[in-house]
Amino acid sequence: MNEERAEVRGIMPARPPIGRDKGGIQALDRAFLILDIIADAGGEAKLTDIAATAGLNVSTCHHLISTLYNWGYVARGIGSRTYTLGSRILHLSAACLRQVDLPRRAQLYVDRLNDETREAVQLAVMQGTDLMNVLRRDSRYAVRVDAGMGGKTNAAHATATGKAILAWLPPTEVDRIIATHGLTAFTPNTITSVESLKEELRLTRRNGFAVDREEFQPGVICIGAAVRDHAGAVVGSISVSSPIFRATPDYLDQIRTHLIAVTDELSMELGAPGAILHGGAKTAAE
């Protein structure tokens, strides 16, 4: 099944003039132009179209794209006939947000979600191929679960925060993360098959949220949703964790409602277009 693609155009500064006479380096000018062209095309474009738009011959364009690919700024699309923006773009975007203090900007939303659900809440971002937990709030209940490990983890495939981010990466970038870390089994429920993980990510895209069903910690159910920036790119995710004995379908649905509201509001504060937010997410019990 083909995933629906939403074309998102952020407000970007005008491109600078290209040429050595402006004090720049022509190859770098062309490389940045290629990234802009892919972004303007909706995040995916054919080599011939990129070359034509950039005014380059196909061979020169291919060499530049190969360099960008090696650095992770460009990825191959489905069937390797197109090119997409790579996950390294998300790394830069996340670093930019951290520079303006994403945890600080997210703190009110994480605190509100913690108040509304009384469960453990955390904010995570991707740094290269690693999942980084950057903000946590503990559960208010006497019987509670740990909000998760701090710092970098290799558990993106086993956590709701990780799956909420992985779902929106190009397939080649998901493959690169899997190749780097593997699919470690943290519990008997952890997804350790590449095919099963990709199906799980497809469901995450369809539903608008991710679910960790005792995949990272025994006895813990977790729901996560993506946070987006002004260009529609996923720059992080927020999740809520509950012990399994409280996780009835109705209870999870209430958590999902609060979670989607918070991630949508934070995304809008970061400038995300309303068209790409979680308008039609399904219930957590499905």
UniProtKB/TrEMBL annotation:
UniProt keyword annotations, A-Z: DNA-binding, Transcription, Transcription regulation
The HTH iclR-type domain, residue ranges: 25-87
Domain IclR-ED, chain residue ranges per copy: 88-272
Pfam families recorded: HTH_IclR (PF09339), IclR_C (PF01614)
Classification via InterPro entries: GAF-like_dom_sf, HTH_MetabolicPath_Reg, Tscrpt_reg_IclR_C, Tscrpt_reg_IclR_N, WH-like_DNA-bd_sf, WH_DNA-bd_sf
SMART domains registered for this protein in UniProt: HTH_ICLR
Protein name, UniProt field: Transcriptional regulator, IclR family, C-terminal domain protein
